[in-house]
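Data card: per-record layout.
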Amino acid sequence: MAISLKEKPRLTLTQIFNMSFGFLGIQFGFALQNANVSRIFQTLGAKIDDIPILWIAAPITGFLVQPIIGYISDRTWHPKFGRRRPFFFMGAVFSSLALFLMPNSSALWMAAVLLWILDASINISMEPFRAFVGDKLPAEQQTTGYAMQTFFIGTGAVIASLLPYFFTNVLGFSNTAAEGIIPDSVKYSFFIGAIVFLASVLWTVLSTDEFPPEDIAKWEQEKLKSKGLFNGIIEIVQGVFKMPKIMLQLAIVQFFTWLALFSMWIYTTSSVAQNAFGTTDTTSKAFQDAGDWVGVMFMVYNGISAIVAFMLPVLAKRIGKNYTHMICLIIGGIGLISMFIIKDKTMLLLPMLGVGLAWASTLTMPYAILANSLPPNKMGFYMGVFNFFIVIPQIVAAAILGFFIKNVFNSESIYALVVGGISMVIAGVLCLQVKETKEA
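The structure for this 440-residue chain is written out next.
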């Protein structure tokens, strides 16, 4: 029986847990990528100013894959497999394969190609999860749904980020290797990540059902009208120019937020190695130790995001979602800027507390603000389009950061984190122009 938008039942905490659990695995993949791919690229011979271009796979695949998957999943329905779950599963299979292969790369080009495959596959799994909350939950539970996703994102990232450090310092695996070889501590971390990714997504696929379209006959008719790749492309382009006003307001905030985050993911390893460990030699033990410590730093910010995930809805209820997001982003930006003056590796954990707060809010508040403003029959599509404002700043960062680091900042990558911090503070201030709506 179809469920209308107004009749969607409240779900129990266990049901929200099950429908969100797949994000644990998705974030395993993202966290291993964010903390280790720059390290892998440099180990395989990439120069510091080449790193941003090699990372271009992340934003480009998101730009192309997410709106397409959102559009297709909106038009998918099977009585047994549902609408979003087939995409969860398909993306998980290919992501796990890429995670197995990535640390076995024998050349820089191989690692770069696998990053493209990994990012495309993660996006196939991840995009429908955002629409899943809008599909399944009534309006009053949607912030909780996104907070639960944030909790699993934080939890998964804590464990995944810490894995190389754990394999090195607890299990005794080597974190150094011959020139051009990925250390065993990184290899086995990726192998564990591949298993967790597939298993957690399968949990959600097998434990959660989906509501059929409200009016099957009307849905089939609309699907028939929009059939064909050409019609689909036209509809996607038209949809971009018909975005709700609040999406445009959030787009500017997202641009400066994700410019900051991408700068951090690309340059934290080289910055910490140079600024706190005193090395730029990728074959040295100090550089690999710095890479392990960055995993610990990323574990901290993701751990904080998991802890505060369920506090954000409480704060948002008191002061509003936009003001909550503003405060979190400004604190995170100050944290990134402070890394410029911190030389002690232990003290570098302090800025990660602010970054964790900003990360939790970034994964929760924009989607909670947006969900009630979207037409339910295009939830997946518009969530995919919203991703444009995540990937465009990453493309900008990939295009210009390498040039500025080499020619303006004398190859001192710590300045990329300062630029990122300033950008995040700007994003926070821009939250003031976001006007929340009560209903779709």
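Known properties of this structure: Confidence is low (pLDDT under 50) at residues 1-6. The chain is about 75% helix and 0% strand.

See the next section for split statistics.
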